[in-house]
């Protein structure tokens, strides 16, 4: 028997058009002043204004901070905190992709507990209560709405810091798949692959539990059978809904089982070469599956039994190698790179990348041990 302690902290509301109830939900938790954290792309799509109108219609005073950048840094968080201190919100709303939600969480840490973002790198370092937060994801990828971690990069060192505390968990997550229809095709690709990686990695980590595996399993079923449909028909709302729900379930799995070597290998690629996170994960995931597959063939096979009904998916008997090939094919179909060299990574950089990857926290949860030499070998395979 595997012991675990599972306490869901986030109310999840799912359905097309649910954004229009944002104000109603905020009023239910006693909100009177909301700081909405978003980004320029989501604002341009009109989603942010819809959310603000809903809040204001419910009598909630609202201020917008929309200067969030992709892969938010300590600079983004510091700017949002300055706005928050001037405004004095009693609720934070992260409306956008993972970057907006992470920036809102980072703002919550500093606004309520003070200090610098670096002070909260790790787990459970906040000492004071935090503001309630509402997450409204406009992508289907990070699952940040279901996690108590903020992923913020140090603006000087470019190190991606995972700052986690149960007090930072969202009070409410609104999953409105209609918001994801406006995503650019590239965003759909990189966020979708990231969500698939979350489902796969959480399913096999050292700290997985029966509860986390239930979320991972359902996330894989939804994501693996819907990603191709979304790529073929971006307006397929049912497939969009399956992707968003799958991404959320995968986020819930992360909250309870963490991630693995694919993310440990991906983060240095983003830090040193600016490779978009989803692209970096897509480059590394097939090779990590093959590496883990030497010991986890049955585990991966059990997932393939959930997806082999779709025409392009491998038969469960093909095991880790079939799964790895399937992941590479999905990345190609999504127009994502297949080799590190396609993103300007030179061979001579691999030892330093492996050294950095070995320092990543997520690698410690990988089911098969990975040290600097193992990580270097995986990078070489991806070259």
Task: Describe the model.
Strand 7 and strand 8 form a beta hairpin. 51% of the residues lie in helices and 11% in strands. Helix 6 (185-204) crosses helix 10 (277-307), helix 7 (210-232) runs antiparallel to helix 8 and helix 9 crosses helix 12 (350-357). The strands form two sheets. The protein has a six-stranded parallel β-sheet, sandwiched between helices. Strands 5-8-7 form a three-stranded mixed β-sheet. It folds into two domains: 11-179, Rossmann fold (3-Layer(aba) Sandwich), CATH 3.40.50; 183-382, Dehydroquinate synthase-like, alpha domain (Up-down Bundle), CATH 1.20.1090. By secondary structure, it is an alpha/beta fold. It has helices spanning 22-28, 40-45, 47-57, 74-87, 98-113, 185-204, 210-232, 237-257, 261-273, 277-307, 319-333, 350-357, 372-382, and strands at 11-14, 33-37, 61-65, 91-96, 122-123, 133-137, 149-153, 160-164, 172-175. The model has no long low-confidence stretch (mean pLDDT 94).
């Amino acid at each position: 028997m595997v012991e675990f302690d599972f306490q869901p902290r986030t109310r999840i509301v799912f359905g097309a058009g649910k954004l229009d109830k944002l104000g109603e939900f905020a009023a239910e938790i006693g909100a009177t002043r909301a700081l909405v954290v978003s980004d320029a792309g989501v604002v341009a799509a009109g989603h942010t204004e819809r959310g603000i109108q809903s809040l204001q219609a419910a009598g909630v005073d609202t201020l917008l901070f929309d200067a969030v950048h992709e892969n938010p840094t300590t600079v983004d968080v510091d700017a949002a905190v300055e706005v928050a201190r001037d405004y004095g919100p009693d609720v934070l709303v992260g409306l956008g992709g993972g970057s907006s939600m992470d920036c809102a969480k980072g703002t919550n840490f500093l606004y309520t507990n003070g200090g610098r973002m670096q002070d909260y790198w790790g787990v459970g370092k906040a000492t004071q209560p935090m503001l309630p937060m509402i997450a409204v994801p406009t992508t289907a990828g990070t699952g940040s709405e279901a996690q108590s971690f903020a992923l913020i990069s140090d603006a000087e060192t470019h190190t991606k810091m995972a700052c986690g505390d149960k007090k930072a968990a969202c009070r409410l997550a609104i999953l409105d798949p209609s918001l994801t229809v406006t995503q650019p095709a590239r965003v759909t690709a990189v966020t979708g692959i990231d969500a698939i990686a979350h489902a796969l990695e959480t399913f096999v980590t050292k700290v997985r539990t029966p509860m986390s595996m239930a979320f991972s399993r359902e996330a894989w079923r939804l994501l693996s059978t819907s990603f191709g449909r979304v790529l073929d028909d971006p307006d397929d709302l049912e497939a969009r809904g399956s992707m968003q729900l799958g991404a959320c379930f995968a986020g819930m799995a992360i909250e309870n089982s963490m991630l693995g070597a694919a993310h440990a290998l991906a983060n240095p690629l983003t830090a040193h070469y600016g490779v978009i996170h989803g692209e970096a994960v897509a480059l590394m995931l097939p090779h990590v599956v093959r590496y883990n597959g030497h010991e986890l063939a049955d585990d991966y096979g059990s997932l393939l039994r959930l997806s082999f009904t779709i025409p392009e998916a491998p038969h469960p008997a093909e095991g880790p190698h079939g799964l790895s090939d399937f992941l590479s094919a999905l990345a190609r179909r999504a127009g994502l790179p297949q080799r590190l060299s396609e993103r300007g990574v030179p061979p001579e950089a691999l030892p330093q990348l492996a050294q950095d990857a070995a320092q990543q926290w997520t690698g410690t949860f990988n089911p098969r041990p990975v040290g600097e030499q193992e990580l270097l070998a995986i990078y070489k395979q991806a070259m």
